[in-house]
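ok, trying the design again with the full structure, not the truncated one.
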């Protein structure tokens, strides 16, 4: 089984459990290193993530994965917040963070560029609208987004 398929399988197993705790699964990363693996689980809540949230999710996820046993090798589980530059993956993420500064990398160029930093003006059904500097606006379809993150404002 490919690592991406395994990540999807683990996500399908643990996401309902995490959601039942009132916590959002932001991202999951599984990296194989030799005979071991590292499973990183990133969580968030509307009020931010506490150490207690991380501990609770870690205990619950570990117990569930011990029962389901989807990972065919030993692994280390880490649970943490996504950080200030949290990734935006789902349309709901873009809707939630409308008005915030974001950085977006596209798969295909738009107006001869693939990297954008701007204010997330709108998140629609099929695309997002970014307000860029110099009164420019760009529309980016979700299927052209390679990666997107909140931009840390200083």
């Amino acid at each position: 089984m490919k690592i991406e398929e395994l990540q999807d399988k683990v996500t399908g197993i643990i996401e309902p459990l995490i959601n039942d705790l009132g916590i959002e699964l932001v991202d999951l990363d599984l990296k194989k290193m030799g005979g071991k693996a590292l499973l990183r689980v990133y969580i968030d809540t509307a009020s931010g993530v506490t150490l207690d949230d991380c501990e609770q999710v870690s205990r619950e996820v570990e117990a569930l994965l011990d029962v389901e046993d989807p990972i065919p090798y030993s692994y280390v589980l880490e649970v943490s917040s996504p950080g200030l530059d949290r990734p935006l993956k789902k349309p709901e993420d873009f809707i939630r963070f409308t008005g915030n500064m974001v950085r977006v990398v596209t798969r295909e160029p738009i107006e001869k560029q693939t990297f954008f930093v701007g204010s997330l003006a709108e998140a629609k059904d099929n695309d997002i609208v970014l307000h860029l500097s110099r009164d420019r606006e760009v529309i980016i379809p979700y299927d052209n987004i390679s990666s997107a993150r909140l931009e840390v404002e200083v």
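Keeping the full-length input from now on. The chain has a mean pLDDT of 94.
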